[in-house]
Write a structure and sequence with these properties.
Layout (H helix, E strand, L loop, with lengths): L1 E6 L3 H13 L1 H4 L2 E7 L12 E7 L5 H14 L6 E5 L2 E5 L4 H11 L12 H21 L6
Antiparallel strand pairs: 1-3, 1-4, 2-3, 4-5
Helix pairs in contact: 3-4
Length: 147
């Protein structure tokens, strides 16, 4: 999964965040973090900005990353706006409150795979009973019953 993180305040703030994440074992586990130039959005006139790009694997923890991001933000002398994007989903963090962290986790967590339908026990029981009846009838047809 690819995640882009932009921070108001420029490249120095992004470097600070990258260094912070590199020292946090929970945030860096399962993620490759690098500073890259963001691709311009459709219709954007050549404005190039720097972002932190995370490429994550199955060992990555969205909760650990969100906590590290929130903690880093609290260390900054000025409140910074942080924008996190995963695919078409984007969330901006301005105040760092609980609601913002919930929205961040909603963006970061991959959608859950749909659960397979629960087995239809009644249907399975009926099928088993029908099979048992057929066996009983086959046994009687062979003369197996009562002899």
């Amino acid at each position: 999964m690819r995640i882009d993180v932009a921070v108001s305040g420029g490249e120095a703030e992004l470097r600070s965040l990258r260094d912070w994440l590199s020292r946090d074992p929970g945030a860096r586990r399962g993620a490759h973090v690098e500073l890259v130039q963001a691709e311009p959005s459709p219709g954007q006139m050549g404005v190039v900005t720097d972002v932190l790009q995370l490429i994550t694997d199955n060992a990555w923890s969205a909760a650990s990353f969100a906590l590290a991001l929130s903690t880093w933000r609290q260390t900054r002398p000025h409140a910074r706006r942080i924008t996190v994007r995963r695919g078409d989903l984007t969330v901006s963090l301005d105040g760092g409150g609980d609601e913002e962290l919930r929205r961040l986790l909603d963006v970061l967590e991959p959608p859950a795979a749909p659960e397979p339908p629960a087995p239809d026990r009644e249907r399975d029981q009926e099928r088993d009973q029908e099979r048992d009846r057929e066996r009983d009838q086959d046994g009687r047809a062979d003369g197996g019953e009562g002899r």
